[in-house]
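Appendix B, example 12.
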Amino acid sequence: MSAFWSAWVTVITLAVILGCTWLLLATRKSQPHDETTEETLGHEFDGIAEYDNPLPKWWFQMFIGTVVFGLCYLVLYPGLGNYQGLLGWTSHNQWEEEIQHAEEVYKPVFAKYASLPTEELLKPENASGLKMGQRMFANNCSLCHGSAATGAHGFPNLTDNDWLYGGDAKTIKTTITNGRVGGMPPWGAVLGEEGVRDVAHYVLSLSGAESDSEAAERGKGQFQALCTACHGADAKGLPILGAPNLTDNTWLYGGSFEEIAHTIRNGRAGVMPAHKDLLSEDKINLITAYVYSLSNK
């Protein structure tokens, strides 16, 4: 925080506290009665009159106590701009201490499963390790893939046997560790709108879906010229590139004619973030086992 904004925050904070204190003392000093009275302020509503009674002493003392507490807190802890407080406490330091404590407590638990291959973790005697992987998946992966790992529009289903980059344990671990960046280039400018629709019909025909046969025939040559480099001559995809199989009925962005045409026209960009800097290798190993177990019962 710059010196200006530090001073701004400090002045505003202290001004609010001192202003509230002055208002409290001024109100206390201006009250006409020190004890309970039968006199009223002249206000009456529905037969209920407002008495001119002073603020109860315990209430006044409680307000003064909060002011004193607030000032003591601002002396000991951060709160006045860049001032760090006499105790030197920061939320970042506390977070690091809690992380360090968690590492000391749970590291031996994770280490128990660290040396086990993924296939071993699927065995009944290692069910607790798989449960740990499931909980870590829920914390780190379910936002995109869903709590049941069945995916969503643009996020793959992890419970079937359709994989963009491969579904073996080693590949899954590589994906979680290093992430993936997938790209489908836009072809709208190259094909034109009619060409986009012809290729979309051809792509539909590859999976046996209903399509315009004449348009599909026109789109076949364009597909072979532009798309086989990634999807393969048989359109079954190339895992090394993350290019999907177009002959099945599994679609990442939807398999309707309009959705396929949109993909061809505008392209797609998918990113799976790397977790190597977020999770230890032991934790990634357990998440890998859980994801692998979803399609390998």
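Strands lie at 40-45, 48-51, 180-184, 268-272. The chain has twelve helices and four strands.
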